[in-house]
Write a structure and sequence with these properties.
By secondary structure, the chain is of the alpha/beta class. The protein has helices at residues 9-19, 34-43, 57-69, 80-95, 122-126, 144-161, 171-175, 215-235, 255-270, 288-295, 311-319, 338-349, and strands at residues 4-8, 24-27, 50-53, 74-78, 100-108, 114-117, 137-139, 164-170, 177-181, 239-242, 249-252, 275-280, 282-284, 300-305, 325-329.
């Protein structure tokens, strides 16, 4: 019988990764995700896995690439500037069609910024993580339970589509403690006939490669990869709605900000304002059509973020001018409050 325990977000991620069959963790300390590495340093030897604190962020993600090429479920975690350092190899992972999972517990920026929570890496995760024509799946949990559940989902999606997957959290989610039921350990992992595990004289050698000199050959591979991305968009787009069916005011928010927005929705309902929430769960693929439908009956949309406005661009593209889209954001590690969101709704309703 499943047992509910009190767990910190970062530790829930790590334990769920082990349940998902991850046996290779390669990382480098940076606040606010260092708890993930510290937990893995203790647990991986206990489950027969490998833990390496690499000499740099770049080395860590290259170790993930090597483990993934050998068919292992491998994981690295970092926070904002560390992800920037890993970005080149994430492009190599995509170019080699290798499944891997990357955790980003966002901190405020740019530069070294601060260690407080932020959502200013949305563009990085969904638009311009690294060079080349590619996407990666981006999952945005908003609770410790979802962090555990999405870790298993991330490894499953990575293997199913042979692509890197990012779990995009923030310092608040990583440090908070909540009750969580951990997923059951995965008993059978998918076979990876493409992995470089040695031929033993029984098959031709597998080759993992992202370098193609002939343009026609590279274009063919990219086009094939984009067919997979189309399948991901059809099959794996995820979202949640909250009192959105009759909402006159539709809030959009993801991650920990969505928790705050839910509180604002409930408070607005008590005041007689028909408010609702649309929460993207996959940031890529972004649930455009679902948001368009959710916004159809609303008078306007208010996008709330812990940034100067990044997801709001995808919200505006989805709504496509059918309804006004407003924005409210805090940055630098400042967390918006329900009262601030309610004030913004009031100002918009009053036309100020």
């Amino acid at each position: 019988m499943a047992r509910k325990v009190l767990a910190k977000g970062n530790e829930a991620l790590a334990e769920a990764a082990i349940a998902a069959g991850c046996r290779g963790f390669f990382g480098y300390p940076i606040t606010p995700q260092t708890d993930v590495a510290a937990y893995m340093a203790r647990r991986m030897p206990q489950v027969g896995g490998v833990y390496v604190q690499a000499e740099s962020e770049i080395a860590a993600v290259n170790m993930v690439m090597g483990a993934a090429a050998a068919g292992a479920r491998a994981l690295t975690s970092s926070s904002s500037p560390g992800i920037s350092l890993k970005s080149e190899t994430i492009s190599y992972l995509a170019g080699c069609d290798l499944p891997a999972v990357i955790i980003n517990m966002q901190r405020a920026g740019p530069g070294l910024g601060g260690i407080q929570p932020s959502q200013a890496d949305y563009f990085q995760a969904t638009k311009g993580l690294a060079h080349g024509d590619f996407h990666l799946i981006v999952l945005a949990p908003y609770s410790v339970q979802e962090m555990a559940d999405f870790m298993v989902l991330a490894f499953d999606l990575a293997d199913r589509y042979r692509t890197p997957v990012m779990l995009l959290g923030d310092g608040m989610l990583g440090q908070m403690m909540e009750p969580v039921v951990f997923p059951e350990p995965v008993k059978t992992l998918p076979e990876k006939s493409w992995a470089v595990t040695g031929t033993k004289g029984k098959r031709p050698p597998n080759i993992i490669n992202s370098l193609y000199i002939q343009p026609d050959e590279l274009e063919t591979l990219v086009l094939e990869r984009y067919k997979r991305y189309e399948a991901i968009q059809r099959e794996e787009t995820r979202f949640e709605t909250f009192f959105a069916d009759d909402a006159e005011v539709l809030l959009t928010a993801y991650g920990s900000t969505a928790r705050i927005a839910k509180s604002a929705v409930l408070a607005l309902r008590e005041k007689g304002v028909k408010a609702g929430l649309f929460r993207p769960v996959t940031l890529w693929p972004f649930p455009q059509e679902a948001l368009r439908q959710a916004a159809a009956a609303a008078e306007y949309v208010l996008c709330v973020e812990m940034s100067m406005g990044q997801m709001v661009e995808d919200v505006r593209l989805a709504v496509n001018g059918a309804k006004p889209v407003h924005f409210y954001g805090r940055t630098g590690g400042v967390v918006p409050s329900p009262a601030e969101i309610i004030e913004q709704v009031t100002r918009i309703r009053e036309g100020s």
